[in-house]
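Quick start: load a record and inspect it. Here is HpcH/HpaI aldolase/citrate lyase domain-containing protein:
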Amino acid sequence: MSSATSSIQTRKSLKSRLREGENLYGLFLLSLSPEIAEIAAFSGYDFIIIDLEHGAGGIREAINCIRAIEAAGCSAVVRVPDVTQAWAKKALDLGTAGIMFPMVENGGSASDAVSFCRYRPDGVRGCAYTVVRDSKFGFDEAYLANYIDNLLIMCQIESEEGVKNVNEIVAVDGMDCVMMGPRDLSASLGLLHDPGNPKVNSTMRTAETAVLASEPVKGGAYLAGMATAQDTAADLWSRGYHIVLGSADVSLFKKAAVDDVKANKKSVVDVTGV
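Running the structure step on this input writes:
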């Protein structure tokens, strides 16, 4: 074993932690700021999702965030903009601990997502593993033997069609986790401005029940979701979720900024009476 290989730092994979029964808590990173990513990682999140679907950045920004997150001892996941081979190749070659595909609506789409993550003959991922960051630029001699076990593949169900096809999505071999998308789901039900509507709740429960019944240890999927004002993190944990996203960096900053301004305005009134 070369000295370069022996010096590679290993971190327990997200998939391994889930298999060992851990519940994981994460954050969406939309700013794609390495500094914010690093602060979040040091704060104690189990993982951070670098959001290329809604975040204002691309691959170059993502790789700098991954470096910052990993340097702080945390794991990075990349959410790609859609279920395409081109985006999957770019994201995976960066060396991410997980990948999230949005708006997966049937088993065929989930199967495509998995195939984009695996090399032939198991999939269609392009083979550049000797020169990309995912294999430590070729220094990781055990890469090909371990890359499937080290990668968490997440598919989002965020439409009425996706819920209807939840069982075939969960049944796809290699699809590790279903991430519920409550806001898009409420929109698909015609209830964009009423995410707490009983119809949205009922549809969510249908999908949750199917995922939880699939038993990950027997080839099923883990259940992930994002806490909202209508459905808090405590609510999700109580229903058996394995992974919860607490918030997004921009939401946390927005709240902190608004609270700071309000506190200052109150202090001015208290001191000046104006």
